[in-house]
C-alpha cells in the first residue's frame, strides 16, 4: 500500500472540522514541510474544495438542474470536469456550458469559498469594508465589490411576503450622492441639515413594515419627499398578502392602498398609541434599529441604500433566536438562489436615486 493511498484513507476517517483543523496546522508550520506533509496538505485542500463544490451544487440545484442562460431543465448533460474539479454541464438547448457557480456571486472567483464564508461572517457582524478587507486578506476595492455582489444577489432573490397583523410606517433619510456624478446643488457636509425644513425632496422615503408574529420585515426606497399612495404601492404592492391586518398611524396614503388589497386597516389617532391589541411599537423599534445600523457606516449613498436595507432585514430577522452560523448559511443560500452576477460597472453606473 503506497503512502498516498494511506493518507487518503486517513483523511476519509476524519470529519469536516478535523480536516479543517489539520489543514490549518499544516499551513501554520514554521519549519520546512517534508514530502508527506506537502502531499497531505494538497489532498486536504482538494478534498475540502470538492466538498464545498458539492454543497454549492446541492444548494444551487435544490429544485433540479437548470441552465442559467435559457432556464432549460430537460436537455442538460454532464460535460466533464474543469481544472478546479468543478463538474461542468452542457445545455443542448442553447449550447451553453456551465458549472454550479456560473452566473452567481461566486462566478469567476479566484478565492477559496471559505474566504467568502468568512466575508459573510464579517457582514453578519456589521464590520466596515476596510475591516472586512483586513480580516479576509483582500483589497478594499475587492471588499466593496464583494459586499454589493452578495447584497445584490440577496435582494434580487428576496421573496418575502407579510401576512397576519402587520405594522407599517415610513423612515426618511437625507439624499446622498456619494459616488455619483456631479450634481446641481451645493455640497453638504455628512450629517449636515437639509436646506429645506421638514419633509422635502432632499429626503428619500423608505416605507417599512414588520409582521408581528415572525418579525419578518420589508423596507425599500419608495420615492422622494412626503409619503404618497404611489410610494406605498412601489414597496408593498407584492409584499403583503390579501386579508391581512395593517396597522398604521394617521398617514392617509394607506387608506386607498388597504382597500385595493382587501386589507383591514387600523389607523391610530394622533393622541393614541394603542387601540386594543393594535399598536405600532414594533415598527417604531425597527426604525430605531435601522437608523442605528445605517449610521454605523458613516453616510450610505442613496444609490446603494436598498442593499443596506435588505442587509439589515436579513440579519435582524429573529436575531434573538438565530445563531450567527444560521444567518451566515441563510445569506449563502439566498445568494446562490439568485441567477445573475453583479459586475463593477453595474455598481459604479447605478442611478443616484433608485428607480421606483
Order of helices and strands: HHHEEEHHHEEEEHEHEEEHHHH
Could you give me the name of the CATH homologous superfamily of the domain at 161-178 and 198-320? Ribonuclease H-like superfamily/Ribonuclease H
* Assembly state (oligomeric): single chain
Low-confidence stretches: none
Q: Could you walk me through the main structural features you see in this protein, from its secondary elements to its overall organization?
A:
The protein is of the alpha+beta class and 356 residues long. Among the domains are: 60 residues, no CATH class; 42 residues, no CATH class; 141 residues, Ribonuclease H-like superfamily/Ribonuclease H (Nucleotidyltransferase, domain 5, 2-Layer Sandwich). The protein has twelve helices and eleven strands. The strands form three sheets. Strands 4, 5, 6, 7, 8 and 9 form a six-stranded mixed beta sheet that branches. Strands 1-2-3 form a three-stranded antiparallel beta sheet, with no helix packed on it.
Amino acid at each position: 500500500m503506497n503512502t498516498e493511498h494511506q493518507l487518503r484513507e486517513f483523511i476519509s476517517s476524519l470529519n469536516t472540522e478535523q480536516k479543517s483543523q489539520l489543514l490549518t496546522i499544516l499551513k501554520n508550520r514554521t519549519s520546512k514541510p517534508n514530502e508527506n506533509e506537502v502531499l497531505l496538505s494538497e489532498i486536504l485542500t482538494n478534498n475540502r474544495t470538492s466538498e464545498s463544490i458539492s454543497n454549492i451544487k446541492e444548494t444551487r440545484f435544490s429544485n433540479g438542474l437548470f441552465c442559467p442562460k435559457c432556464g432549460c431543465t430537460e436537455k442538460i448533460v454532464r460535460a466533464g470536469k474543469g481544472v478546479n474539479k468543478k463538474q461542468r454541464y452542457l445545455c443542448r438547448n442553447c449550447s451553453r456550458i456551465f458549472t454550479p457557480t456560473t452566473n452567481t456571486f461566486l462566478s469567476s472567483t479566484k478565492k477559496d469559498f471559505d474566504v467568502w464564508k468568512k466575508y459573510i461572517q464579517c457582514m453578519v457582524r456589521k464590520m466596515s469594508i476596510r475591516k472586512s478587507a483586513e480580516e479576509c486578506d483582500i483589497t478594499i476595492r475587492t471588499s466593496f465589490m464583494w459586499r454589493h455582489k452578495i447584497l445584490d444577489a440577496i435582494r434580487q432573490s428576496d421573496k418575502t411576503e407579510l401576512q397576519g397583523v402587520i405594522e407599517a410606517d415610513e423612515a426618511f433619510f437625507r439624499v446622498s450622492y456619494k459616488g455619483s456624478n456631479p450634481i446641481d446643488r451645493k455640497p453638504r457636509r455628512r450629517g449636515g441639515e437639509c436646506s429645506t425644513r421638514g419633509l422635502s425632496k432632499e429626503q428619500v422615503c423608505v416605507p417599512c413594515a414588520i409582521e408581528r408574529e415572525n418579525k419578518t420585515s420589508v423596507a425599500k426606497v419608495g420615492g422622494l419627499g412626503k409619503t404618497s399612495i404611489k410610494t406605498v404601492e412601489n414597496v408593498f404592492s407584492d409584499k403583503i398578502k390579501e386579508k391581512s391586518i395593517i396597522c398604521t398611524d394617521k398617514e392617509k396614503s394607506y387608506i386607498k392602498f388597504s382597500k385595493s388589497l382587501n386589507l383591514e386597516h387600523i389607523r391610530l389617532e394622533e393622541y393614541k398609541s394603542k387601540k386594543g391589541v393594535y399598536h405600532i411599537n414594533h415598527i417604531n423599534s425597527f426604525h430605531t434599529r435601522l437608523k442605528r445600523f445605517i449610521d454605523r457606516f458613516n453616510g450610505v449613498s442613496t444609490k446603494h441604500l436598498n442593499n443596506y436595507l435588505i442587509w439589515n432585514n436579513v440579519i435582524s430577522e429573529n436575531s434573538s433566536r438565530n445563531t450567527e452560523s444560521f444567518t451566515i448559511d441563510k445569506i449563502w443560500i439566498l445568494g446562490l438562489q439568485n441567477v445573475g452576477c453583479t459586475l463593477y460597472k453595474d455598481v459604479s453606473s447605478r442611478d443616484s436615486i433608485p428607480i421606483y
